[in-house]
Amino acid sequence: KRKVAFGSVGRRIPYRILHVINQDGESLGNMHRAEALKLMDQHDLKLVLLRENAEPPVYRLMTGQQIHEEQLKRAEKEKASPKPGTVQKELTFSSAIAKNDLETKTKQMAQWIEKKYHVKVTIRQAKDSNTDMFMLFDQILETLSEKATYLSKPKVTREGVSVCILRHMSEKELKAYQKMEKQKNNTVKKDENEDLKLNE
């Protein structure tokens, strides 16, 4: 049986008795399918299956907006969880990390990226450090820019902790990156040449 995507809801509910939750997340208790559908129509909401294997199955009344947000949340979560067969390595360090330690860790990341592993990087904000963690992530990516890109962009997961996941660039991304760098270098060279001409 194919797993139905979240939020794809019709009026065909295979269960007679449902446990219904309203759009504010409050339980309305168990009710007959017909009653739940009536509520759905009255409030112009959709009935979304939350837990199929509960007894009775749990459905929630949701607005289109709520469904959309939940779908985005689930997609983000799925993107962040490694695909079966993908090795995910993890590194955690403080924002007050010494320059040489950061270089060592970045080298380690580069080796993992080479092997096509995903690398989850967690940075904890050090007590007396006002280092911008997002700048640190950018610095790491800058060092690995020939190989890596973000699988999930840096975000704060909880107070003082930021996380990102790096992955190996695809051939297409790598070519686009190299082309961009080449253009950038040509522009710089052109500017330098023009400066030389001006100086002459």
UniProtKB/TrEMBL annotation:
Annotated Gene Ontology cellular component terms:
mitochondrion
Indicate the segments forming the Translation initiation factor 3 N-terminal domain, all copies.
10-76
What Pfam families does the record point to?
IF3_N (PF05198)
Superkingdom to which the source organism belongs = Eukaryota
> Does the keyword section mention Secreted?
no
Can you name this protein? Translation initiation factor IF-3, mitochondrial
The protein's GO terms of the molecular function aspect are: ribosome binding; translation initiation factor activity
Q: Which UniProt keywords apply?
A: Initiation factor, Mitochondrion, Protein biosynthesis, Transit peptide
Coiled-coil annotated residue ranges, if any: none
Q: Write out the annotated subcellular location.
A: Mitochondrion
Functional summary from the UniProt entry: IF-3 binds to the 28S ribosomal subunit and shifts the equilibrium between 55S ribosomes and their 39S and 28S subunits in favor of the free subunits, thus enhancing the availability of 28S subunits on which protein synthesis initiation begins.
Does the keyword Thylakoid belong to this entry? no
